[in-house]
Amino acid sequence: xxxxxxxxxxxxxxxxxxxxxxxxxxxxxxxxxxxxxxxxxxxxxxxxxxxxxxxxxxxxxxxxxxxxxxxxxxxxxxxxxxxxxxxxxxxxxxxxxxxxxxxxxxxxxxxxxxxxxxxxxxxxxxxxxxxxxxxxxxxxxxxxxxxxxxxxxxxxxxxxxxxxxxxxxxxxxxxxxxxxxxxxxxxxxxxxxxxxxxxxxxxxxxxxxxxxxxxxxxxxxxxxxxxxxxxxxxxxxxxxxxxxxxxxxxxxxxxxxxxxxxxxxxxxxxxxxxxxxxxxxxxxxxxxx
Length: 289
Fold this sequence. Notes:
Blueprint: H1 6-13, E1 16-20, E2 23-30, E3 36-41, E4 64-67, H2 85-98, E5 103-109, H3 111-124, E6 131-138, H4 151-156, H5 161-166, H6 170-179, H7 187-198, H8 206-209, H9 212-218, H10 220-223, E7 234-239, H11 247-256, E8 260-265, H12 272-275, H13 277-288
Parallel strand pairs: 3-4, 3-5, 5-6, 6-7, 7-8
Antiparallel strand pairs: 1-2, 2-4
Helix pairs in contact: 2-3, 6-7
GO molecular function, one term: monoacylglycerol lipase activity
GO cellular component, one term: membrane
Organism: Agitococcus lubricus
């Protein structure tokens, strides 16, 4: 197994592991131990490390929780697993129960936005084990019919998916990532992201973890209507130059969610929290106040 970079090792050392549904889940629980928390959900194919530059800017008065979904980052990456967003949502509920968190302000990026949608659907049905106080959605293809999938995402959904996953490499990963950024990020960040993807052979699971895209199509009828009935504060925070989760998705969400406010990050792409963590943290702090 390749050695993790120093920045990732430091991140790992500041976190913890717990067993949920028989799987090792990596998480970080930062700030005062109170029953209310800020929960940040990461996207595909990355990890909670995506938030590492934002976290120190969110203040010391908040309890902030980040974790790696099953199949991502430093969490377990089992070969025989569904990698369904429903099970990822189950992990969220189990983690918050384990940490004794009762109420959250929910912030989600990319794939995490649809896990958030499943949690909202459970909330509407009164099946959720915690309360959601507010919701921030950032650059996620919630309206999958409008998304412009990357070539690698399309390949991973094709009959060649298993082969493509086995042939994935650091060079290809970094090249694909650069295509969806509007503002360059340091090479060290890209290297850290690859190390977390390839940790425990996670890049070989890409043909499985990418199944969330198909679920977005299959379960749109479950996940989209509850958004139109939300009564909690919602912020749509969007890197306007995102070539994947395009601006049209943000606009559609803003018109459909009655309590939503839309805020553009005009010069940023798919990973605003990496491209300009200060700008993202400034907006988040205002929303969380």
